Amino acid sequence: MAVGRLHGMGIRPVVMLTGDDAATGRRVAGETGVDEVKARLLPHEKVEALKALEREHGRVAMVGDGVNDAPSLAAASVGIAMGAAGSDAAIDSADVALMGDDLTRLPYLFRLSRKSRAVIRQNIATALLVKLVLVVGVPLGMVSLITAVLVGDVGVSLLVTANALRLARVDA
User: Residue 22 forms beta bridges with which residues?
Assistant: First the structure.
C-alpha cells in the first residue's frame, strides 16, 4: 500500500537493504511491492549499496530503525528513522525521526517535503520581489519610507507566514 503510493509519486525504485536472509527479504518484498531486495548485508555493506544507488539514481532516502541502519541513515541524502521503535543511534544519525512506526505515513512525508520546498521558494521569491520594488520605489518618491518599512518587514512577514500555513492542509 505505502510502496504503491510511493510508486504513484514517481519514487522508484524502492529497495530493501536488509541483514536478513534473501528468502525472507523476497517474501516481504512480494507482500509490500518493494522493487528490489539486497539481503544479508552488514552495516558497511548497506552503506556501499546505498552509495551505489545514489550513483545510479541520484538522491536516495533511507528508512531504518536499528543500530545497524545508523551508518546508512547518516550516509543517505535523507535519513529517516522510525522513532518509536528506533534505536538512539538510528534516531541520532537520521535527518528525520518519525514519531511512530507506521510506514504508510512515508508518502505523506514525501508530499509534505515537496510542498514545503515549493512554499519556501515562493516565500523567498515573494520577499525578494517586494523588497526590490520598495528599494526602487523609495528613492523615486513612489513609496514613503515608513510604508516601505511596514510593508517590507511586517507585511512580508505576514504574507510568507500565511503562505506557509497552507502546509497544514497537505493531506495525511
Answer: none
